[in-house]
Amino acid sequence: MFKVDYGNPLQVAAMWSNLVEPGDNAAGLLTGVLGQAKGLEWVLESADPKELPSELVADTEGRKLPWRQAIQRWLPRVAEANIEQQFEYLQRLGGRLMYPQHPDWPGQLNDLGEYAPLALWMRGNFELAQPREWVSLVGARASTNLGDQLAAELSFDLVNAGFGVVSGGAFGIDTAAHRGALTVASQVSSEALATIAFMAGGVGQLYPASQLDLFNRLLDVGLVVSEVPPSWRPARWRFLSRNRLIAAFSAATVVVEAGVRSGALATAHRALELGRPVGAVPGPVTSQMSFGCHQLIRECGVTLVTNAQQVGELFLGLGAGLTGGALASEGVQSELVFVSDDFNNPVHERVWLALPKYGEATFVSVAKVAGLSVSEVSAAVSALLVAGKVEVFGDKCRRIYS
Amino acid sequence: MFKVDYGNPLQVAAMWSNLVEPGDNAAGLLTGVLGQAKGLEWVLESADPKELPSELVADTEGRKLPWRQAIQRWLPRVAEANIEQQFEYLQRLGGRLMYPQHPDWPGQLNDLGEYAPLALWMRGNFELAQPREWVSLVGARASTNLGDQLAAELSFDLVNAGFGVVSGGAFGIDTAAHRGALTVASQVSSEALATIAFMAGGVGQLYPASQLDLFNRLLDVGLVVSEVPPSWRPARWRFLSRNRLIAAFSAATVVVEAGVRSGALATAHRALELGRPVGAVPGPVTSQMSFGCHQLIRECGVTLVTNAQQVGELFLGLGAGLTGGALASEGVQSELVFVSDDFNNPVHERVWLALPKYGEATFVSVAKVAGLSVSEVSAAVSALLVAGKVEVFGDKCRRIYS
């Protein structure tokens, strides 16, 4: 087992990144109050939920977080936290680990409060990750040709005008947004602040793999960032929590195309919760891929934007720095708000996704993969059993495909 | 010269309709204060701008309307007001004249205040012109196929749901809107409240003439309405003032497609000034015909709507009757706000349009055609002369085509 040097912030951040799933607000609260090092020390050395550190008790008065569950989520992962191998891997990748106390930490992410990331693993042009006029351009993977074209043009024009473009490296609108930005860097000015991709999986697991060409260009002049260790896979729930980083890192968010259940809408809602300006591009009322954009404009007070100048106007009224408010704890929904139709509970879905595709797994191993406590897994498995989605054999279970 | 019986409100309204151009607020103010009969009597019998009726002086304290100009606009048209022939013509057409004191007068038009119409000439199903849930669907003449399809579908769904649809009988979106409504009447329910067309020219001069098929169906189950005498031609400036009737008659206005200089935008702005809810349908950001809609949504607080249900929701918050505010006099712009690029002054354009296409005309005749005073025409002609747009010979002038 790796022995953490609590005086080494890189090791501390790396360990936190191994113990928790993104957006675990118990970890955010604990490290926010105690600091990452002291918080980690308490988890690894004592971790008695009946004896919470006095600072934590004082600062979180009235909050009844399930500390026991939290500790049970984190501790089983300690033994598997192969920090040394991860650092070696990161070095081979030419990457860098960033921790919150570092002077280059992008402070706008702290607007997420207890949902702020605990570490950022990066590859590419590290100097990009500074607070400045970043716009996120997000949207559907199943975008239309027109949507792709618009995203690329918007991105090109924005980068040309001195903005930076953030997206998620996915197919469709994300790809078009990154490409538009990279075109400025390759054809107009090699010094152009181009583009950052926030990834759901680790920076050694760039996904989707067929986007290799895009990722190579991103690693060359852009930046790829993730809050999970380099080797971790992009599990489905990590896409949803990743969206909050895109929203918080950017000073403004624009949805180019989105169906009514698109993850891009989650990004937009995160940005709205953070007080960041949000824009959406309209489209034909007959295009499913514009339904989400129209809904944002109609119902959420999102600004209709049709070109880069109008996107730039979203920044009017923002100060030189970022002025968005922090996420009010009571206003924040779970990071797992979008549940597919097959599951009516995000934890149930996460457990099901954490099961191997074929074959069986113990509750303990499922808990580690999902980043949940064994009792949370057990409760979820019971519900999945009733729903006919899993079979259970003693302390093991397996998926049933209907 | 026709001798008006001041006790006959039909004759009085018909005469007013002959003397003034639509939206002449001096006439609106005069008849609003004195009543149509007494106002007309003053104009025809005394008309000394130095001796305004005492009621008018008291009621319009502080307003310095150019009464002398107004009277000079109106009086030259008295001799040509062939009221008897117009009534005969109306009878042949099976039409009807409506005046403001009539119990069936659509009272919502009075929200226009001093810009309210002085008479309404109608053909078709007279019972339609009642205050109820009327929606105006307006938009570009040079609409896209998609826009036409949407307008027809919206209109069909709205009429099917019990709303009535108002438009302007023009090519493009207007036609599609009327057709969608008429389809409900012909295919679903013959009792469906279908559709009203407000015309810029007289109801005997239905324009464009190539829309004969549409107009025949409108006359059969819908209604055609105009504030100018039946034989008057649809001069260009009358389209702009006609738009205010569409806005005021309807409880809500929806722009389906509109370029950035479309007259439909004027209708939307009138509706906004009246406190009526306004919606606009989004479209591809690459479609010029959606630019105006996007501008309304972005800059004017207009609601994005994509289907009939959302249009219906525009009525939420409105009472059973119409609750829009009256046009505040100081907030109202001239009815002639949209000037084509060739003219920087709407009166200059109106004078130019009132000139015969070929050949010359006296200042006096131009004044009658344009509904302006001779001194207004004279000033405009001077400016047009300097601009090289007209030639002048003594008291006559003619167009120059560059």
TrEMBL record, chains A, B:
Pfam families: DNA_processg_A (PF02481). Coiled coil: none annotated. Residues 97-312 form the Smf/DprA SLOG domain. GO terms for biological process: DNA-mediated transformation. Gene3D superfamilies: 3.40.50.450. It comes from the Bacteria. Belongs to the DprA/Smf family. This is DNA protecting protein DprA. It comes from Gleimia coleocanis DSM 15436. The lineage of its organism: Bacteria, Bacillati, Actinomycetota, Actinomycetes, Actinomycetales.
